[in-house]
Amino acid sequence: MSGPIGIGVIGVGVISDTYLENLGSFPDVEVLIVGDLLLDRAESQAKKHNIPAHGSAADVLAHPGVQVVVNLTIPAAHIEVSSAAIAAGKHVWSEKPIGLDRDGAAQLLKDAAAKGLRVGQAPDTVLGPGFQSAKRAIQAGVIGEPMFASTTFQTVGPDLWHPDPAFLFANGAGPLLDMGPYYFTGLVSLLGSVDRVAAVGRKKLEERVIRSGPKAGETFPVEVPTSLQVIAGFESGAQSASLLSFDSALERHGVFEIHGTEGSIIIPDPNMFEGRIQYVKAQTKLADGDWGGQEFIDIEQEGVVTGRGLGLLDMVRAIAEDRPHVATGELGYHVLDVMLSAQESAASGEFLKVASSISAPVPTVPVDFDPFASTL
């Protein structure tokens, strides 16, 4: 590969604005064409972001200059679109999750490997300087050996603000598969492969009401649990507890804590690329009844802040440098396996073994990684 690398985007819904703005600022890549089922929407996004061509998904796959396809379609279409890109000889970067079933995702990775093509997988927030600065501090031993983690995402639900939220409550979504990828990708990036999971889940309502936009007042069915508690055991011996809910009157997002043998660290929201990082050491003495006097120590965030598309850029550079990229399809598959196992555990009431694992630790992003440099 020599840059800038040609990019084609399939699916130009709401999230595409962020991708197209960021990719347009990276010198190592160039978006050549966008495609969508709605051709007028593709045309509108092409004009808005000064992209030279637009059309259908087939037009993107046929474009001779496209080396990497960015798959921003709905989750139910991820495997189909990514597989078509691999069949067309293109590398793939896909929004989360990698797919909705293990067999389809596994076949996608097998087909890509057979053709010598890369699959990159969102979320790429784990490449952001917030998460990476915290990860480097953990690797440096600031909290000792990581023992257990606690994560929380709870909200009243996206039906409050999303103009068409039914798909977020359908099979293949809910808080587990919609928000879970951010938290479990972060946990696996820090603690390694998950070995087993147990979960409980429930719904608050069988039907929800859209509360904003042109469909306000319409109802839709809820197909999946909307509150889940997930316990995970890791091959390393670490463990985690995660709450994911669309049912909470109390809004609490982005809680991500790792507790080790020598201290605890608070990591930024895994849905963000930056944030405050703090750690605390265990108290060595305590007067009777004197709680709450711990000293929190800030960790400096190092690195350039960007946004979605950072993982794609890392993958493109990794191909050119013949090194592993950070947000791999293998990582995305393992996270999917963890979430589906949690979903199955909630249905069965049993602790379940997670069959997959990652073959190597997730790489750390160098402090001097500069998205705005021309390197290819």
Automatic annotation (TrEMBL):
It holds the Pfam family GFO_IDH_MocA. Keywords: NAD, Oxidoreductase. Residues 6-119 form the Gfo/Idh/MocA-like oxidoreductase N-terminal domain. Residues 131-265 form the GFO/IDH/MocA-like oxidoreductase domain. GO terms for molecular function: nucleotide binding; oxidoreductase activity. SUPFAM superfamilies: Glyceraldehyde-3-phosphate dehydrogenase-like, C-terminal domain (SSF55347), NAD(P)-binding Rossmann-fold domains (SSF51735). It comes from the Bacteria. This is Oxidoreductase.
